[in-house]
Amino acid sequence: MNETEKKLIKLIAELTLEKDGEKLLQQEVLERFGMSRMNFNKRYSHLNGYIKGTQDIFALAGAISTKEDAFTEELAKKYKAKCEEFAKLAAEFDANLEAKIKLHITSLMINDKILHDANDIRSDLEKQAISLDELKRKLDEKELEVTRLKSAAYKVRDEVKSVPHSYSEIEPNMTPVFENFRRTGDLDVLDDEKESAIEKLANKARQFLSANDVRVVLYIDCYLCRFKRFLSHHFQPLADSLVIRLPLYSREEINAFVEQLCTKRPIDVYVPICESEVTKKALRQFFMKHVPVPELEIADRSLVIPSYREGFDTITVFRVGIE
User: Fold this and answer.
1) pLDDT tens-digit profile of 169-194?
2) Looking at residue 75, what is its pLDDT?
3) For the CA atoms of 283, 284, 289, 295, what is the dihedral angle to 10 degrees?
4) Hey, what's the torsion of the CAs at 180, 225, 252, 198, to 10 degrees?
5) Of 217, 229, 284, 298, which one has the fewest beta carbons inside 10 Å?
6) How much of the chain, in percent, has pLDDT values that exceed 70?
7) Contact present, 160 and 267 (Cβ < 8 Å)
């Protein structure tokens, strides 16, 4: 654990004490600490649970504090008070629950309650038996609808494949970013310059989309397949498209980029994968020598396959091998 992470942990604990039960936001922590969201998500995303309150920040902060630390004493007092408050509430809840149970049970004998439950179950089964034929009829109708929809979808797909479509591609200028890192070895500068390059990419894409009626295609570049090879071997446009090479990997970063596009156009996502570590190493040795090792490590560690729930129209995961 480095000094930056220790300072972050102490700040989260202090803000949690200040909030005194109110929800703590990631943005508040980052503004107080002076750190960019991209830098936090890449290096300290494991602290998100402590910010949200799902993990015990007090115990973590206490573990890294010294006995002479005044914050530790304040933390212990507040934590003890919260524990006592919780114990009191738990005791009150148990007492109320026991009283309620006694109030309801005393009105029925145990045998009468069992008989009553059995009658309810018998009644429910009779109702289900009566409606079984109706449910089966509705199920048959739905299956017929699904068959018709599948047939229509296949027809549309075949029609789409028969129509040639064009595409334009754009990508971030990462060459000077990687070259500067090789000179300085500064990870913070690498993060800041990459964030700037991604912002310029979003601006360029937004301008293109305002002037052209096209689909948006995000190629999540985790340095396994060259962009040109992806376009020639793995990409089949469903319509006229703008293909964006996007070297972002976490769900938060990808969704933030999509928000910057300010578009309601359909968005397709392509993600390359390689299950063999030997093949992955060979591909990067031959074609990705210009990419710094920390960037490759972040790509492997942070990559999350996007979900349809996030609003994407299609998500294609394709396997790559030795070219």
Assistant:
1) 999 999 999 999 999 999 999 999 99
2) 61
3) 160
4) 40
5) 229
6) 83
7) no
41-45, 240-244, 317-321: the lowest-pLDDT one: 41-45
| Per-residue model confidence (pLDDT) at position 321 | 86
- Which is it for strands 241-246 and 167-170: parallel, antiparallel or unpaired? parallel
* Token pair of 257 as six digits: 């980029």
State CA 221 to chain mean position distance.
Answer: 17
Out of 5-9, 148-152, 239-243, 284-288, least confident range: 148-152
Classify strands 314-319 and 241-246 as parallel, antiparallel or unpaired: unpaired
Name the pLDDT band for 109 (thresholds 50, 70, 90): low
CA distance 173 to 133: 64
* Domains of the chain by residue range: 1-107, 123-163, 167-319
For 10-18, which contacts have Cβ atoms below 8 Å and span 24 or more sequence positions? 10/61, 10/64, 10/65, 10/71, 12/47, 12/50, 12/51, 12/57, 12/61, 13/57, 13/58, 13/60, 13/61, 13/71, 13/75, 14/71, 16/53, 16/57, 16/58, 17/74, 17/75, 17/78
